[in-house]
Each structure stands twice: as C-alpha cells, then as structure tokens.
Amino acid sequence: MAGGPDRVRVVLTRSGGLLGRPVSRGLDTADLSAEAAAQLRHLVEEVREGSAGAADPPAGSSSGVDRFVYTLEIHRAGERLTRTFTEAVPAELRPLVDLLRGAPRLPPGRPVR
Prior knowledge:
Layout: E1 8-16, E2 23-28, H1 34-50, E3 68-76, E4 79-86, H2 94-101, E5 105-106
Antiparallel strand pairs: 1-2, 1-3, 2-5, 3-4
C-alpha cells in the first residue's frame, strides 16, 4: 500500500501569527489503520469535490499582521492539490483541517514524498 494508487498524504502548514514560525502536521494513509485511512480518503474526496470551482482569496485580502496563514497540500495518485487560506477556515475544508490539527507534527523542512 505504501506506493499504491489509493495512498493519500495530506499536510497542513500554519504560518504567520505572533512568532511567524511555520508548524506542519500531516497524515499518510500508509501509516494509518484501515478505518482511519478510509476516513482520510473520504475527507480528501469531499475537499476535491468542493474545490472544483473554489478559488483561494487573493494574497493580502485578509488584513491583520498576526493572522495565521494555512497551506493545505493533498497528494493523491500523482496529483497535488494546494489550498492557501487565512482564518476563518473555509467550510468545505473545515472537517479535514480539524482532523489535521490533531495529527502529529512534522519536523521543520520535511518534504512530502
């Protein structure tokens, strides 16, 4: 399964805020139980369907020096979807972002493979 077509890897990076240090959290279906992997795939599919016509807001459209900026990266079957947003989290992304907020932290600079 590690390199299989059903593998999904998702990384949420939060940057900005008072200190500006990026914090990344991620999940990989290759590292999850069958049930947790199925849940992740389902949430990713909902994001992909909801993102078909969605556009990220232009940079700087949300004012606030100390605001967090989030970058969501989804890697699936050779495809890569990236969404960047500020608070508040868009409704179509909220369930996946909520799951990722409890995911393990990734070391700084760790590439997604």
